[in-house]
Amino acid sequence: MRRSASLLVSLSLLCFSAVGAEAQSKEPVKIGLTAAVSGGSAASGEAIKRGLEIAIAEINANGGVLNGRPLQLVVRDDEGQPAKGVTIARELVEREKVTAVFGGLHTPVALAQVAVWHELKTPYMGAWAAGTNITRNGQSPNYVFRVSANDDDADKFLTRYATDVLRKGKPGLLLENTSWGQSNETGLTKWLGEKGLKAVGVEKFNWGDPDMSPQLLRLKSAGADHVVLVANAPEGAQVVKSRAKIGWEIPMVSHWGISGGRFAELTGELSDGVAFLQTYSFFGKQNERGEYVLKALKDKYGVKGPEDVIAPVGTANAYDGLHLVALAIDQAGSTEGAKVRDALESLKAEYKGLIKTYRRPFTAAQHDALTDTDYIMVVWRAGKIVPLAAK
Amino acid sequence: MLVQLLVTGLALGSMYGLVALGYHITWATSRTMNFSQGHAVMVGAVVAWTLVVALGWPLPAGLLVTLAALAGFGALIERVAVRPFFRSASPAWLLSTIACGIIAENVAQLLFGKDARAFPSSLTQRPILVGGAGFYPQELLIPVVGLALMALVQLFYHRTPYGRQLKAVAWNAEAAGLMGINVPRAVMAAYALSTLLAGVAGVLLAPLLNVAPTMGTIIGLKAFAVAIIGGLGSAPGIVLAGLGYGVLEAVVAGYVSTGAREIVGFALVIAVLVARPWGLLGEPPARRV
Amino acid sequence: MARLGWAAVAVAALALPALTGNTYYLYLACSIGLLTIVTAGLNVLAGFTGQISLGHAGFYALGAYGAALAATRLGWPLWAAGAAGVLVAALVGAAVAAAALRVSGPYLAMVTIAFGIIVEHVLVEWVSVTGGPGGIFNIPKLPVGRTYWLIAAAAALALWLTANLRASAWGRALLAVKSSEVAAESLGLSAYFLRIVAFTISAAFAGLAGGLFALLNGYISPDSFTLQTSIVFLLALLFGGLGRLAGPLAGSVALTLLPEFLTGLADYRLILYGSLLLVSIYGLPAGVVGALAPRARPRRSADGAANGPGPDAAGGPRPTAAPAVIGSAPLLGVERLGVSFGGVVALAEVTLAVPSHGITAVIGPNGAGKTTLLNLITGYYRPGAGQIRFAGESIAGRPPYAVARLGVARTFQTAQAFDDLTVVENVMVGVAGARLGGLAGALLGMPGARRREREMRGVALTLLATLGLGARALEPATALPAGLQRWLEIARALATRPRLLLLDEPAAGLSPAEIEELDRRLTALREQGGPAIVLVEHHMELVMAVSDRVSVLDYGRVIAAGSPGAVRANPAVIEAYLGAPA
User: How far apart are CA A309 and CA A233, in angstroms?
Assistant: First the structure.
């Protein structure tokens, strides 16, 4: 059954309960989520959860999967701790009997879990953590998939933007001191090298650091002509504020972390002109699914507008990822992990998604549904995200 | 660059000192302290944000209610997590205050939200640029208010009758009790004051640091380090240690690296304690044989 | 009862893999095991010596990284890699302890917190070795089922080792230091050294658990070794029951399973977790184990008699150390001793000679400096001026435990029994003194160590019997009334076979009948060739009855010395006592 073809994207939420009732009567197919929904990165987990819930409500309203079985979400809080993540991975599979699991923001958690997915033959769909070797993990068959950025591709994209569009050649790197920052240091160094360039300085900061002016001052004195930023919103905001404080007018190119969590509110007018990568933006004109998801966010979670979507990439990635998993379950005709995995790797249905139209998103060699050709460059203007012309 | 670092360091350092003074106050009166003191910083910022930013109250009214709420929060911690275990042999108060911190952080997440929010202040809109260095007016305000508050606390303890009573409890709770001082009430007052100071630090820092349920953890920890370096029993030691630690952090981050900052900072804590086991200006307790 | 409990745990641990192939349950059991190992070690530190660490995640990390690096970089076999992890943790633990244990209480908490944070940040920064924030992958790992057996065996080993330690001279020494550092040092124990030993053991245990953690997961990164982790370690121990042998296991089970029961609660999960913690701290002040099996409290005193010899079994006191003959020189010679505190002169020009036999009394009004004199002799205070010679050696300024090891024992004005030990164990601390035997033998419960235990117990019981405490030997020391605690303290001091015994107001608080008894015993000690005794006492009748010589202190000076009769007639003494010339 080609569910994607029959799917009416703009179906109103009111219809859900009526059609959903039929789907509820059969045994549900469980989907797990392991993400931080408490602590400092709680917003990321919340965003992913919203994306999954919206997609699940939509699919269930349309008859669920496997001829009428509803999807059911099981959320677990890994607190960003790898050991906790491993416990949760086993619990989701062994006790909750989930068919597939979605993952959160923390690369170390995702890396720690990789072995478990393979041992227990359960497909994993990354919705945020961009660490390159989460998907490129050397396992075959590979149970780890991702609808999110891949740092290696993201770094290629950012480097290309800085050198080809901005025509700058002296990058100063400002990275968070985590495995995500580390992953990007590797990627950026590699892609700058391809262009025959080298970072004039590499500076790091810790989560919750109050002031980034020392790092910026060092980059400034090293002669950087632009700053490549890898940070989440709170630290990104401190970077922008510190930049204003030392009075340094410098172009900033950022990875996508700053799109999560009210960057505009935290920085006010200071964020103007900061360019960054996105997989999806709820600002501007939306495709059909974009309209639908935004409406669902408003109706269900009291979101006021695009500026109030706290971590849009999490929601967008999870939403598309869930649709792909649902398609794979139908194609496999089973909830068995190995079969769903095979189906994901050879997905026949075309899925017109939120971020893009997915045609054969995964192959044995490519477990990232999104690559650098799917990213967009956007810029903050007066608290809104404005897409930049491609290239 | 040095000027820049000094301003940043002094601002943060004075806040470490203010929060650390809270550890000193409760330790002196009761030989216990709130291991979740950092969460009091957060509560101050979150309550002030809710009143002033979300509900749009005028700043003075918002601040007044915030201060009252903080004192109440401190009293509550004392009543719930400290008094039942006051002077008990086991460090149960350590566990119970940690438990209170876990509860406070997650209640805040539930009510306030999970993402950081801005606390706009007219003092953080435009930086003042001086030569190569720049700072926000708020950064200058913070150490001034911080030091003034610390001085006020000292005056309270040395010059007012009630402050003297609290000091008496610190000296010898049993004797103070015999002299008719209500010791449990004195301890509760110490907790209220301690929480109040930490919360004020939260309010002062909010415009610079943003408001989030997890914002206090690191400050609370570093303030603890400062209290220990300075000497838990010595208020002047703590104030000096706070400023020193803030400046040291900024200088190490500025001239070495951010990664080295925590390593150097905490290694220094160990070094100080090896050289002076009761803190820089602390006195060892008399050995009782 | 306790035995039944342990058997049930063992059966459950053995049966679990057969009952379920579910790797989630096995992994949880592994987590419980790892936490048990760490907390068992922490129990030696916090439960036995009373020192709290909030940095053991650092040792856990050292064990994990040590083992992981040895296995991946050096290609060592897994057992050798694990051993390397333990060794690294233990060595660093000893070094940290040497620096950290100069302080205690919140200061120690801070040093350990700082250590943990430094380790965490070094792991992040030292990318070339530790892999930085991304950590280390591809650590050779076994299937969960096999790792389970490994971890279960290690956890059992950890609990067994701590049980052996508790039952050994080392364990008693650690608990003695916790109850009263002052009294422990008076028996020749160095509190500092013992705490270092305890700290090192706990670091080694944490290192072992860390190595197994790396093996279980196959991947480690700094996120697993934060202050949060250290706090959980301590919480588990306190929750289970500090100082109780089963505490680590009970706390680990509770703190591993509790969050699992709450997983479905989403946003309310941690609020409930915190509240449950708080409620259980109220409800279980002595931890889970403390609630299930409260420590035996006195009430009955019949039990002891069956096991120990009756009050008269030994037929009188046994001679203590053979008195040394040192020519005509006094055993203890105090010359022109002086000390002042904060400008106030407490003692000045005090001279005192104590021969190797007989009882020398030191009397004087309150505040005359008598106890200060004892504290100077036994090393608790440093003299400002003058000399103290014991058996020909200068001992001024030596630490208390070093003075004690030379054969100087003492009691205290307020009796300082070791609260966590039984009556006989209190005395056994004295019997062993600084001779604790091999640590490995104690941990492993080797036959040699066990034999020594039996011997020491025999000696202690005999001594108690002679002092009339035989029937109460197996009761907790806290169960004794104040009068008997004094006897216990004297028995403990005598157990060290001292050449010199300093008694600080032994008659204070005793009934007239008890004082008579004291009189009889002191006389008996002297007549049976016991140690030389210095008696600081207010009770004039007793002093006059038993003493061979009397020195009188007033305002920190010796105002009279000589035979009891001569001193009694001395006008200066009468003035000092009556406040006016007679």
Answer: 13
pLDDT at site A11: 38
* pLDDT at residue number C579: 63
Distance between CA atoms of residues C359 and C533, nearest Å: 5
Spatial separation of the C-alpha atoms in residues B93 and B85, rounded to whole Å: 6
Which residue of C104, C110, C376 to mutate against B (max B Cβ within 10 Å)? C110
- Tokens representing C362 are 């030191």
ipTM value of the model? 0.92
Q: How close A84 gets to chain C, by Cα (Å)? A: 9
E-assigned strand segments in B71-220? 128-130, 133-135
Tens place of pLDDT per residue across chain B (289 aa): 788 888 888 988 999 999 999 999 998 888 888 988 999 999 999 999 999 999 999 999 999 999 999 999 999 999 998 888 876 666 778 888 989 999 999 999 889 887 888 898 888 778 888 766 788 888 888 889 989 998 998 888 888 888 887 777 777 777 777 777 888 888 899 999 999 999 999 999 998 888 988 888 899 999 999 999 999 888 889 999 999 999 999 899 888 888 888 899 999 999 998 888 888 888 776 555 5
B89's CB contacts (< 8 A; 6+ apart) are: none
CB A168 within 8 A of CB A223: no
Q: Do C231 and B91 touch (CB under 8 A)?
A: no
DSSP 8-state secondary structure symbol assigned to residue A280: -
The CB density around residue C375, as the number of other CB atoms within 10 Å, is 24
Percent of chain A with pLDDT over 70: 92
Q: Which helix (H) or strand (E) holds A268?
A: none
* Short-list B97, B38, B43, CA closest to B69: B43
In C385-423, which positions are buried (b, 16+ CB within 10 angstroms) versus exposed (e)? ebebbbbeeebbebbbbbbbbebbbbbbeebbbbebbbb
Per-residue pLDDT tens over the stretch A68-113: 999 999 999 998 888 889 999 999 999 999 999 999 988 889 999 9
What SS3 state is found at A29? Answer: strand
Q: Which of B41, B11, B16 is nearest to B223 (CA)?
A: B16
At C502 the three-state DSSP class reads strand
| DSSP secondary structure letters along A57-114 | HHHHHTTTBTTTBPEEEEEEE-TT-HHHHHHHHHIIIIIS--SEEEE-S-HHHHHHHH
In this structure, are residues C496 and C459 in contact, taking their beta carbons and an 8 Å threshold? no
Tokens representing C491? 């028995």
- Tell me whether B99 touches chain C (CB under 8 Å): yes
A90: distance to nearest CA of chain C, Å?
5
Q: C385: helix, coil or strand?
A: strand
Q: For residues B114 and A38, give the distance between their C-alpha atoms in angstroms, rounded to a whole number.
A: 8
Minimal Cβ distance to C270: which of B102, B287, B288: B102
DSSP C272-285: HHHHHHHHHHHH-T
Which is more confidently placed, C13 or A319? A319
CB contact B134 to A (< 8 Å): yes
How far does C270 lie from chain A, in Å, by closest CA? 8
* Enclosing H/E stretch for C50: none
User: Do C269 and A77 lie within an 8 Å CB cutoff?
Assistant: yes
> C296-299 long-range CB contacts below 8 Å, 24 or more apart?
C296/C475, C296/C476, C297/C476, C297/C479, C298/C475, C298/C476, C298/C479
Q: Are C464 and C475 in contact (CB under 8 A)?
A: no
Q: Which of C114, C271, C375 has the CB atom closest to B270's CB atom?
A: C114
Does residue C343 have a pLDDT over 60?
yes
What's the pTM value of the predicted model, to 2 decimals? 0.89
Our CA-based measurement puts residue B61 at a distance from the nearest CA of chain C, in whole angstroms, of: 30
Please give the full DSSP string across B9-53, using - where no structure is assigned. HHHHHHHHHHHHHHHHHHHHHHS---TTHHHHHHHHHHHHIIIII
